[in-house]
């Protein structure tokens, strides 16, 4: 039997409404009704009857629920948690490595992230938001400070870095862009042009290049603990950079979905515990 049918039955039983169940599951009311009809056909018995504007479970539905209730959490896990696909920035992938979630490196384009959320290609994304989309909900996750990474044996920079030194050096960036603007330009108070020698595909690639060159890299405080083996030093930025405010992004249809709310709570707990 299709577990989606049982999951839908449980939601309708708990909500006593096809409409409310459709919001919880994130599908249309018509799809909920169709699933219940399929289940009734397989069982050869009615599960709900109309009473005014509401529905009531039949004796068959009540009996089924007594058997299904103990396994409800297991059904939810089988249907949702294992199958959840989450876009993550690299530093969060390490924090969630043992979460059991399907983690995918987030696209460099935020518009692509939004499009994939709208098309339900991904269930959740961790990103910093610079654009609004009415179909996408954002919830605060954490704030991260930006720092400058450089090779441990850098010949010209000591424990402190001046603004003049910063702009005189070469730089390694990452491809992540928001509204076609690079991260530094978004975060810096008064950004000036920099000499970019390499545009890396990831933070780890960026920092590996930095460790083996005299170029500088802008990274996050959170990332420090994962790259200690590279032999890097980290200094405070000589220019004012705002902190990165990371958000959980998801489709509005999942706002009240119980299983999705549990997913978001789990991700928040793991990220904020670090």
UniProtKB/TrEMBL annotation:
Protein name: LysR family transcriptional regulator
InterPro entries for the chain: LysR-type_TF (IPR050389), LysR_HTH_N (IPR000847), LysR_subst-bd (IPR005119), WH-like_DNA-bd_sf (IPR036388), WH_DNA-bd_sf (IPR036390)
Family listed: Belongs to the LysR transcriptional regulatory family.
This protein's UniProt keywords: DNA-binding, Transcription, Transcription regulation
Keyword Transcription: yes
SUPFAM superfamilies, per the entry: Periplasmic binding protein-like II (SSF53850), Winged helix' DNA-binding domain (SSF46785)
Database matches in PANTHER family: HTH-TYPE TRANSCRIPTIONAL REGULATOR LEUO (PTHR30118:SF6), HTH-TYPE TRANSCRIPTIONAL REGULATOR LEUO-RELATED (PTHR30118)
């Amino acid at each position: 039997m299709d577990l989606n049918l049982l999951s839908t039955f449980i939601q309708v039983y708990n909500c006593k409404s096809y409409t409310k169940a459709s919001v919880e599951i994130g599908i249309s009311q018509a799809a909920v009704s169709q699933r219940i009809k399929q289940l009734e056909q397989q069982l050869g018995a009615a599960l709900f009857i109309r009473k005014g504007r509401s529905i009531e479970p039949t004796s068959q539905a009540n009996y089924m629920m007594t058997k299904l209730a103990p396994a409800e959490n297991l059904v939810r896990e089988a249907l949702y948690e294992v199958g959840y696909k989450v876009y993550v920035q690299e530093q969060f992938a390490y924090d969630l490595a043992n979460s059991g979630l399907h983690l995918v490196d987030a696209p460099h384009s935020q518009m692509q992230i939004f499009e994939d959320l709208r098309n339900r290609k991904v269930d959740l994304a961790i990103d910093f938001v610079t654009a609004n989309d009415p179909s996408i909900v954002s919830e605060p996750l954490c704030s991260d400070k930006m720092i400058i990474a450089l090779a441990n044996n850098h010949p010209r920079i000591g424990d402190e870095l001046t603004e003049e030194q910063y702009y005189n050096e070469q730089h390694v960036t990452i491809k992540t862009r928001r509204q076609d603007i690079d991260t530094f330009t978004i975060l810096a108070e008064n950004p000036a042009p920099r000499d970019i020698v390499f545009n890396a595909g990831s933070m780890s690639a960026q920092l590996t290049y930095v460790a083996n060159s005299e170029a500088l890299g802008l990274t996050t405080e959170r990332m420090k603990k994962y790259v200690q083996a590279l032999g890097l030093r980290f200094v405070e930025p000589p220019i004012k950079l705002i902190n990165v405010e990371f958000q959980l992004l998801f489709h509005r249809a999942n706002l009240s979905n119980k299983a999705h709310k549990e997913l978001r709570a789990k991700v928040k707990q793991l990220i904020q515990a670090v």
